[in-house]
C-alpha cells in the first residue's frame, strides 16, 4: 500500500514546479541586526576584544578563567580542530555569530575543566552505575521530545533538565548549594539564555518549546566533546559534518556517560533510577551508544519523512540565520535531506545487531491518535505499570499548551525540495517500518498534540 501511495505522489508531482517552491523561509529578526552592528562597532573601537578562535587561545583562556589545567580525555581536541577549521572557512559567521561561537567554545572548555575538578574532589561520582537506560532514537522532528517528556514525568526514571543540558557541570561553589546555603545559579542562567534566544528568534519556542526545568535531551553533553549535530544545526560546517560521519564516537559517549554520573550526583538522586535519554544524534552513533550503554532499551520513533525533512530544515534554518548573513535555504534543505537519509540508513544497519526484545517501534501518527494507548504499549515493553505515571503525564500535557502557543510553520518548498525526491530517497524507510504517508505533507501545527 505504501509503495502505491509513494508512486502516486511521484506521478502527481514529477516534472512540475510546485507552487510552494516560490515560498521564502522566514527572515531573522531586526534584533540580531542591531546586535551585530553593535558588536562590529565595539570591536572597531576596542571595547570588545578581537575574536580568539584558535584552539591554543581558547584553551589558554579557559585555563586562565578557572585556574585549572586538566581537560580530561584529550580526544576532544581532534574534533575541536576540525570544527574550528570548518567554522573559519565555511560558516561565514557575522560579528554576533563569531562572538557567540567564541562564548560557546569557552563555556564547553571551562566545563571540561570543572568536570575533572569534581571527579578529583568526589571520586565516588565515577563509580555511580547507569543501569539499563531507556534511549529514544528517531530522526529530528519525529516526536522524540514529546515521548521523552511523557516518560520523564514518571519519577521512576531519571532525566536531564534544560538548564543541565545548557550547563551540565556545577560551579566550584556547588557544595554550598547542596548544603542549602545558596541557590544554584544555572537555572537563572538558562532562563536568561532562553530570553535572549527568543529575542533573537521568536520562532524558537514554536519549534522546540522548553523552559529551564523542562526535561531536555543530552545533546549538550555530546557537545562537551566538540561532537554532534548541534554544531551543524547552527553553523554551516559541511567539512566538520563529513569528518564526524567517518569517526568512531565512542569517546564522546564515554564522556557523556560520566557527565550523566556527575549530573545524577548533583541532583542527589538514586543511581538506581534508569535514565531517559534521547537525541537524534544517536541515529548516527548507535554502535558507540551501545558500547557505552550495553544494556540500553531502545524506543525507535518514525514519522512521514516529508515532515521530518521539512521540519529539520526549518529548525536548522532558524538557527543558522542568527549567526550568518549568508545562509542559503536550498543548501540547508539539501543538507538535511542528505543527513536524514544517512541517519535512517545507519539506524537500519545498526538494528541488525540488536536483539528484538531490546527495542520497540513507535509511529508519530499513533501518538497523535491515541497517546495513552501508545504509552501503554511502551510501558508493557519496559515491564512497568503505567497507572502511577499518568497524573504526571497529564500535567505535562497541560504544561505543553502554555509552552507552545504558536504553530511551527514550514514547507519543503521553502528549502528547494519537492515531495517526490524525499519519498524516493526515503522510500525504503517508509516501507520497512510501514510509515503512514498521506496525500501531502501538512505543515506542523501547534498545541498539545504537536510537541515533538
Automatic annotation (TrEMBL):
Keywords: Transferase. SUPFAM superfamilies: P-loop containing nucleoside triphosphate hydrolases (SSF52540). This is Sulfotransferase domain protein. PANTHER family: OMEGA-HYDROXY-BETA-DIHYDROMENAQUINONE-9 SULFOTRANSFERASE STF3, PAPS-DEPENDENT SULFOTRANSFERASE STF3. It holds the Pfam family Sulfotransfer_3. It comes from the Bacteria. GO terms for molecular function: transferase activity.
